[in-house]
């Protein structure tokens, strides 16, 4: 489903990040890079280096909304995966961007990433 995709994972919880990385690889992602802090990656670098992103709404207490806005402006498909969120606020600020709430199932997460990239598992 994610065959060959280069995916950025913005997640500050180490074990969750490792699980997401493994999930993406299990579903065929070509490269998975984890950033645990916004200072580790510049939004403009994402365009050249990644096909999609999985974005936690908060990294180390800092909001990732500005980063997500930059992704949207640059056309990089992404989803939010977060445990602390206001779904209505996200829908209003980022229409069409899927929010997968923690704790989430791996299938839900992968399906959301695939859908954001215009790929479908056939069960959507």
TrEMBL record:
Q: Does the keyword DNA damage apply?
A: no
Q: Which UniProt keywords apply?
A: Phosphoprotein
Q: In the record, which positions carry 4-aspartylphosphate?
A: 56
Tell me where in this chain the Response regulatory domain is found: 6-117
The keyword Membrane is assigned to this record: no
One GO biological process from the UniProt record?
Answer: phosphorelay signal transduction system
Query: Could you say which residues form the signal peptide?
Result: none
TM spans (from-to): none
Looking up Pfam families in the UniProt record yields: Response_reg
Q: InterPro entries per the record?
A: CheY-like_superfamily, Sig_transdc_resp-reg_receiver
Q: What is this protein called?
A: Response regulator receiver protein
* Species for this entry: Mesorhizobium amorphae CCNWGS0123
């Amino acid at each position: 489903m994610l065959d060959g995709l280069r995916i950025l994972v913005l997640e500050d919880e180490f074990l969750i990040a490792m699980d997401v990385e493994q999930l993406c690889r299990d579903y065929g992602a070509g490269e998975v890079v984890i950033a645990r802090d916004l200072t580790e990656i510049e939004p403009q670098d994402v365009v050249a280096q990644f096909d999609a992103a999985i974005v936690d709404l908060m990294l180390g207490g800092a909001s990732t909304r500005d980063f997500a806005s930059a992704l949207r402006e640059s056309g990089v498909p992404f989803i939010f995966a977060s445990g602390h969120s206001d779904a209505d606020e996200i829908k209003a600020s980022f229409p069409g961007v899927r929010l997968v709430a923690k704790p989430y199932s791996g299938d839900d997460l992968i399906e959301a990433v695939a859908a954001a990239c215009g790929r479908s598992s056939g069960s959507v």
